[in-house]
Inverse folding.
C-alpha cells in the first residue's frame, strides 16, 4: 500500500538502501513529493520537548491515520471496514497508548507526507518504506516489516523468470506498476523503462500476464502473491520471493509509520509497544492474515534505514 528512481534511487538499507516500496517516485515525481511536503503548513505547536500530540490524542480518544488504499498495507475492504497490515497494528498500539479509536483518512500515496505535515491526519499508516529522503521530511517508527520482490508469470513459468537478470536475458516483456521501485531494479539489470509496460496496480499486472500482453509483472512479494490468490488465477502464478539488487548490492525495503518531526514523544511511545509486539510474536500474528510471514519480520531500525 511505498519513490522514482532511474539511477537516482531513494535510499533504503543494508549494504545500500534503495527505492521505496512501489513508489519509486521517478524523477519529477520525487521532486513533487518533497516540494509539496516542504511547502505544506507545519504547526509549531507542541514542538518543544517532543511534542504534545500523544496527550491530545488521549484527550480526544481518536487518532487519524493516513492510508493510501493499497492492499494489503492499508485500505477499506468490500464491507466498508478499515483494515490492512498497518492499520491493524495501529489499532492495537494506539489502544495501549490510551487512544481507543482510529479514523482512516484515505489519500493518494504521494500525498501522505504532505498531508501529515499539514495536519490532515496524525500518523501515516500505509506501510511506507523508510529512506533518507523521507527521513528529511518526517520521523519514522522502527520498521514493522521488510519486503522482497516476486513476479506474476504465466502458469508453469515457461520463460523461467526468477529475477530481473532473467527478464533481460530472455528479452521478456516486463510489466510493473506506476512509480514502483521495481522499475529501478529492472533498469539496473539492463532493461529499458521504455520497453516496460507501466500499469496502475498489481491487478492490472495480473490481467496483462493472463492476456499475454506481458510475460511478467514485477511487484513486492506480498502484493503479488495476494492478487494471484484472491483472483484464483488459472492462467498465472506467483514466483518465489527473491532479493533485488542495485549495483550488485542487496536493496532492502522496510516500512513503518511516519510522524511529524516534532512529535518524538508519540513516535518513541509507539516504538516501545511495537518492540513488545515483535518480541512476543504478536506482530506476526496480526499481519499474517494479510500475507506476511516470518520472512517479512525484521530487526532493522529507522536509524539504519534513514542513513
Amino acid at each position: 500500500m511505498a519513490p522514482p528512481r532511474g539511477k537516482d534511487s531513494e535510499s533504503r538499507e543494508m549494504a545500500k538502501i534503495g527505492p521505496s516500496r512501489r513508489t519509486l517516485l521517478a524523477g519529477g515525481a520525487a521532486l513533487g513529493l518533497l516540494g509539496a511536503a516542504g511547502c505544506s503548513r507545519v504547526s509549531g505547536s507542541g514542538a518543544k520537548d517532543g511534542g504534545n500530540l500523544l496527550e491530545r490524542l488521549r484527550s480526544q480518544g481518536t487518532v487519524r491515520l493516513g492510508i493510501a488504499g493499497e492492499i494489503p498495507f492499508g485500505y477499506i475492504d468490500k464491507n466498508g471496514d478499515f483494515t490492512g497490515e498497518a492499520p491493524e497494528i495501529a489499532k492495537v498500539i494506539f489502544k495501549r497508548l490510551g487512544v481507543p479509536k482510529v479514523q482512516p483518512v484515505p489519500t493518494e500515496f504521494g500525498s501522505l507526507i504532505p498531508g501529515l505535515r499539514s495536519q490532515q491526519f496524525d500518523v501515516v499508516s500505509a506501510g511506507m518504506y523508510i529512506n533518507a529522503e523521507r527521513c528529511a521530511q518526517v520521523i519514522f517508527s522502527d520498521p514493522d516489516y521488510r519486503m522482497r520482490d516476486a513476479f506474476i508469470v504465466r502458469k508453469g513459468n515457461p520463460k523461467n523468470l526468477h529475477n530481473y537478470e532473467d527478464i533481460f536475458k530472455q528479452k521478456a516483456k516486463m510489466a510493473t506498476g506506476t512509480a514502483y521501485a521495481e522499475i529501478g531494479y529492472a533498469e539496473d539489470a539492463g532493461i529499458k523503462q521504455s520497453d516496460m509496460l507501466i500499469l496502475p496496480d498489481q491487478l492490472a499486472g495480473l490481467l496483462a500476464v493472463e492476456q499475454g500482453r506481458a510475460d511478467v509483472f514485477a511487484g513486492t512479494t506480498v502484493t503479488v502473491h495476494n492478487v494471484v490468490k484472491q483472483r484464483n488465477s488459472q492462467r498465472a502464478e506467483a514466483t518465489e520471493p527473491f532479493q533485488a539488487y542495485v549495483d550488485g548490492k542487496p536493496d532492502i525495503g522496510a516500512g513503518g509509520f511516519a510522524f511529524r518531526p516534532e512529535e518524538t514523544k508519540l513516535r518513541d511511545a509507539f516504538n516501545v509497544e511495537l518492540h513488545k509486539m515483535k518480541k512476543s510474536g504478536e506482530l506476526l500474528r496480526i499481519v499474517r492474515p494479510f500475507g506476511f510471514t516470518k520472512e517479512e519480520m525484521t530487526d532493522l531500525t529507522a536509524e539504519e534505514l534513514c542513513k
About this structure: The first helix runs from residue 28 to 39. DSSP finds twelve helices and 17 strands in the chain. Residues 2 and 21 are 4 Å apart (CA to CA).
